[in-house]
């Protein structure tokens, strides 16, 4: 199946990415390969993996099992916190490429800022250089607060093209999204379906879904799209994979958008992972 239904958006480096991608956390081994192969066949072109998901090889294995040419896919991986120093970061990008059997990544992100270690600028410099060497097309970050992004720009002159952050109806990141918009950074939403916690049974979301003759998942993913955020829902199930990209034939109205925004809570993060203090290695 060819993908003509997912619109694209332009990044600050001129590259274009699909407005919805596919999350791969927990997709590993034979089952993971099948799920990713199915996602590509259903029309996903942006795939999100990470060194720490231990599934770059799974993604790399799925790609040639489809008939979609490599250049039509956008493959993402991420640099773990334990490899932020410059030399380790460069080696890790190379190792990620070997694992996936790729000769370039479309997108490579710093996974967490781990600000207490004060090494994320070094990691960023390594990604800037890896991009110059042709190992990566687009560089970005995850979970960076405005203060971390400002530091990257001040010390290297380069702002990320993408910041992938926790974003779902219970944590809508209004201020961070506004900051991204003002600085030309595209927001990607991780756990866009709140990892299936309290979303699909939510009475108000069910009502909005009924009104549009859509599923709750489609309403939530459409909400991300209308916010201008690139959601990367994960599903191991082919039917749900297709459902999650079938969101471009309806619109939420201003009331729907406002109602969904009202579900946000200061403590709405799924696991309380505040990037100012949370560390992941
Ligand atoms: N940068 C970071 O720090 C970070 C952190 C977390 C996640 N991520 C990325 O973000 C991606 C997405 O986040 P996530 O995997 O945490 O959670 P998610 O995409 O919000 O939710 C996935 C869960 O929702 C279920 N689901 C998906 N579509 C559904 C549908 N249409 N109807 C009912 N259930 C549905 C899935 O079950 P089935 O598989 O059974 O369908 C799974 O249990 C990850 O896979 C990863 O690539 C990044």
UniProtKB/TrEMBL annotation:
Ranges where the NADP-dependent oxidoreductase domain occurs: 20-263
InterPro entries tied to this protein: AKR, Aldo/ket_reductase_CS, NAD(P)_OxRdtase_dom_sf, NADP_OxRdtase_dom
Keywords carried by this UniProt record: NADP, Oxidoreductase
Superkingdom of the source species: Bacteria
SUPFAM superfamilies the UniProt entry points to: NAD(P)-linked oxidoreductase
Family statement: Belongs to the aldo/keto reductase family.
Protein name as it appears in the record: Aldo/keto reductase
Species for this entry: Ornithinibacillus massiliensis
């Amino acid at each position: 199946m060819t993908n003509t239904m997912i619109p694209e958006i332009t990044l600050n480096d001129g590259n274009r990415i699909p407005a919805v991608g596919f999350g791969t956390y927990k997709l590993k081994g034979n089952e993971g390969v099948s799920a990713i192969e199915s996602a590509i066949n259903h029309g996903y072109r942006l795939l999100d993996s990470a060194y720490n998901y231990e599934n770059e090889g799974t993604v790399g294995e799925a790609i040639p099992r489809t008939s979609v040419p490599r250049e039509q896919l956008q493959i993402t991986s991420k640099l773990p916190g334990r490899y932020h120093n410059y030399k380790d970061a460069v080696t890790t990008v190379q190792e990620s490429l070997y694992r996936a059997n790729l000769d370039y990544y479309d997108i490579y992100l710093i996974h967490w800022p781990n600000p207490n270690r004060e090494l994320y600028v070094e990691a960023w410099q390594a990604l800037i250089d890896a991009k110059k060497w042709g190992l990566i097309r687009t560089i970005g970050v995850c979970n960076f607060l405005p203060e971390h992004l400002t530091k990257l720009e001040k010390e290297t002159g380069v702002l990320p093209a993408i910041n992938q952050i926790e974003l779902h109806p219970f944590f809508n990141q209004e201020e961070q999204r506004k900051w991204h918009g003002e600085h030309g950074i595209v927001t990607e939403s991780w756990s866009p379906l709140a990892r299936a916690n309290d979303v699909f049974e939510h009475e108000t979301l069910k009502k909005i879904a009924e009104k549009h003759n859509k599923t709750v998942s489609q309403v939530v993913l459409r909400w991300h799209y209308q916010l201008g955020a690139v959601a990367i829902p994960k599903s191991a199930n082919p039917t749900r994979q297709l459902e999650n990209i079938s969101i471009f034939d309806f619109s939420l109205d201003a009331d729907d958008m406002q109602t969904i925004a009202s579900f946000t809570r200061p403590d709405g993060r799924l696991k309380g992972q505040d990037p100012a203090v949370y560390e992941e290695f």
